[in-house]
Every structure is written in structure tokens, then in C-alpha cells.
Amino acid sequence: MIGRVCGLYFSPCGNVEKTVRAMGSAAAARLGVAAEYADVTLPAARQGAYRYGPDALVFVGAPVYAGRVPNKIAPFFRENVRGAGALAVPVVCFGNRSFDNALAELFSILRQNGFTVPAAAALPTEHSFTKALAPDRPTAEDLAEAAAFAARLAERCARGESVPALDPARVPGDGSAPYYTPLGTDGKPAVFLKAVPAVDGARCVGCGTCAGLCPMGSVDRADPAKMNGVCIKCHACIRKCPAGARTFTDPAFLSHRTMLEQNYARPAEALYIQ
């Protein structure tokens, strides 16, 4: 019997959070319980373990980076998110290109960690690199569709139906496949692994917002132009800078962004499996 509905998500720019909360709220409403959420975007939230028992239905969300779960975050999901027979739904959000192997990867992690996985979803949302791809998604219609998907699963639980695990063959992708190789406008690999946001000193007011938002804790609080660790290109510091003082200027990164805009502007479709 499901007595808890939970959402757990890594969401630097907020779109995964919107999606998981829409699903969790709909499922909780159908089951007559309050939804519980765990935002694991910031480093401090990823220090502890998250464990769910057989009375829980958990929506687990992550963005798609290079066709997979972000490589700096996947170890957290593998090591810290455990289910002793809980139901879990992997939810991935991709920037209009493709979710590639991310859904299969998150599905596999949850299965290996003791969850029963009866459903899965992949949704296109506005790309963190550019507003030209899936602009303003998830829309109200997208969120309503996601909520309806979750409510259908909750309805099965409410009726006491058996909710079997998904056949892995139904989940597209290979969770152990290589990461997608970013390409530039010339069709060649665009190498920008070490690129970091540039800071416009004339605009930066030193408010520290960027440091507080960095999911890797890499932005120096005393000097926002300095990075003390890895940059995963999540764009949280760029999208949410109140002064618009941060941007990427790396030529390889800009070439890749242009390539995406030129080739993946068509509206991508969501995938729901249950």
C-alpha cells in the first residue's frame, strides 16, 4: 500500500524540478497524501543517503547531459538513493535534441538500487545552453501531460492493482553507452571541457548569487570570476545572475551551441512508458 509520494531531483535550471513536482503533486492528490520533495541540486544536499521503503512512490528526476545522466552526479544516484522495494519512476529532461541513453541509465540505477520501476518518462525542456531550443518548455500543457501520466500510475496503486516492473527492453537506450560527442558547425568534435563562464566586471555586483547556485560548489564567493572546481556547463549561474554578468565565450562551445540551434529546433516529443 502506497502511503508516501516523494520527488527527488537534480535541477540546476529548474525544469526538472517543475516536471517532478507536477508528477508528484498529481500522484499525491490521487492517493490522498502530502507530497515530499528532496532537491539534491546543491552539494550539501548530496552528502546524505536517501532511502525509501515499500510504502513509497518516488519520482526521480535528472537532466540529460551529453546523452546521459550528468557524469558528476550519476555517482550520487548510484551510491545514495536506495529503495527497499519502493516504486520509483525515472524522469529525464532533455534540451530538445535527444535523451539518448539517459533514461536507460537512470532506469538501470534505480533497479540496481532496490527499486521496482513500473514507469519511466523523458521530456523535452528548454535547453540550458540556448532559449532557441524548446523555448519555455515545459509549458502548462507539458506539465498537465506529465501530471496525468503520474495520476494514472497512482490510480493503479490506489485500486490495489499489481504494479509490475517495466521490462528493460521497453526503455530505449543503453545505460552504459558512451557519452554523446558535442559537434561544432563544421561537423567536427567541439572540445570545451575546460571552458568556464566569463564574467563582465562592469556588470557584476558581487552579490554571490552565482556561488550559491553552483551545483558543484565551484564558483569562488570572494571572486565570482574564479572557479575553484569543475564546471559542468549547467548554466545555473548564467540563467539566474540578476545582473546578466556571466556568459560563455569559448569558441568551441559557441560553435556547438550554434550547431544545436541549426539542427534541433523542431519540437521534440515526450516519451511516457508504463
Tell me what you see in this structure.
- The chain is α/β, with parallel strands linked by helices and 274 residues long.
- It has two domains: 4-178 and 266-273, Rossmann fold (3-Layer(aba) Sandwich), CATH 3.40.50.360; 198-249, Alpha-Beta Plaits, CATH 3.30.70.
- 28% of the residues lie in helices and 16% in strands.
- It has helices at 15-31, 74-80, 102-112, 140-158, 209-213, 236-239, 251-263, and strands at 4-9, 35-39, 50-52, 56-63, 81-83, 87-94, 120-124, 198-199, 246-247, 271-273.
- α1 links the parallel β1 (4-9) and β2.
- α1 (15-31) packs parallel to α4 (140-158).
- The longest helix has 19 residues, at 140-158.
CATH architecture of the largest domain: 3-Layer(aba) Sandwich
The CATH superfamily of the largest domain appears as: Flavodoxin domain
CATH domain class name of the largest domain: Alpha Beta
Number of helices: 7
List the uncertain runs.
none
Describe the strand arrangement of the main beta sheet, using strand numbers: 2-1-4-6-7-10
Question: How many angstroms does the end-to-end distance come to?
Answer: 19 Å
Task: Look at the helices and sheets and give the structural class.
Answer: alpha/beta
Q: Averaging pLDDT over every residue, what do you get?
A: 97
CATH fold description of the largest domain: Rossmann fold
**Beta-strand content:** 15-25%
